[in-house]
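Q: what does this look like with nicotinamide-adenine-dinucleotide bound?
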Amino acid sequence: MKKKTVRAGIVGAGFAATFHFECLKKVHSTNVEIAGVFATDAEQAAIFAKERGIRAYDSLEELIDKADVIHVCTPPVVHEPIAIAALEQDKFAIVEKPLTGYFGDGSEDFNGDSFPKADALDHALASIERMLEAEKKSKGQILYAENWVYAPSIQKERQIIEKTGAQILWMHGEEAHSGSHAYTYAFWKFSGGGVMIGKGCHPLTAALYLKRVEGTARNGKPICAKAVSARTHALTRLENFEDKGHIRCDYHDIDDFSLMHIVFEDGTIADIFASDIILGGTHNWLEVAANNHRTICNINPNTAMKTYNPVDAYFADIYVVEKTGTKQGWSNPSPDEDWFTGYPQETEAFYRTIAYGDPLESNSSLAADAISTIYSAYVSAEKAGAEVPIRSEW
Ligand SMILES: NC(=O)c1ccc[n+]([C@@H]2O[C@H](COP(=O)([O-])OP(=O)(O)OC[C@H]3O[C@@H](n4cnc5c(N)ncnc54)[C@H](O)[C@@H]3O)[C@@H](O)[C@H]2O)c1
């Protein structure tokens, strides 16, 4: 079969844009032509474009016009308008996590600690509705960039669940490290919340996905989340927190520790931790306790490789693993971190959907479930963990 050509436009020129660009080089099923990049930080976009030999555009509209798919690699606060702009032109939108959210009332001094979280839930659901409506009217589609869905360990677990007819009784998982790099991450008005949305969305979406897989395999119908109890904390903003220089601690109005306890409609459960206080590198895993097997998906770190290095300086030029504090002593270097994380598999799958109409695993309805769960969890956390129902009909 002759390969189809898909033209890619990248919006944003920061961290996520960089790994999206790298993954485009690894797409096999489709010829990818990179139309170019647009970012509001024009200087950053110009450097990004020059280093990669691509064109920087002056406007989003121009880039959308020249592309078949837009990679939305911007802070979450502008995911909705950018994705809708692409969908309105019948283009596809690959949207980074979280799909959308509530980013305050527009005031400069909006404070995420003190506003009623029921408002956040209402606004986030309204934003989802607008995005889903735009998708319905479009020839394009929302492709939700949740790499955990495409991580090889999660896809292997999917196969085990489908082939053995497993019933998942409990999942627990975590995404954690010592603090996100982005300046905007520290503010609710840019990020739509703290670590519960920023990191919790990853293991949560993988858990929601696997229960969908189970339901579809066993009964031809996904199993959705029904209710959530949650706690959030701001540990690095405690007056008695002592900064030793290893953990980021300049957050403005967001949580840096969270726990969601989710009850699915069949009564089974998941517990999802997310935090910004964990040393020793990224700690990303999901454990599945089923009625016929037990799986631990180690996304990062994993033990594909173990290295002992007696002197930190020897490894000055060696990338070991994300967010590690030291390269001295024993470590688990990731031979191909992107592969374990699911980034290239996600991109390949998205381009197969765009070019050939392949079924989409990480779609807008999974993304909507994740956002609905997280903002219901913020309502619960405000009530010190009281159970809150989750909307999952779209
Ligand atoms: N899947 C993952 O593992 C992963 C990892 C990191 C970040 N992310 C997600 O990627 C997104 C971007 O995060 P990042 O770390 O790359 O941020 P970043 O701060 O490094 O880069 C953001 C870029 O967006 C641009 N931008 C901001 N507003 C814009 C607008 N209105 N129009 C066009 N460009 C605009 C900025 O100029 C900048 O180039 C976020 O949604 C984040 O949650 C996902």
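The pocket of nicotinamide-adenine-dinucleotide is lined by residues 11-17, 38-41, 44, 73-76, 78, 96-97, 145, 147, 182, 184 (CB under 6 Å). DSSP finds 13 helices and 14 strands in the chain.
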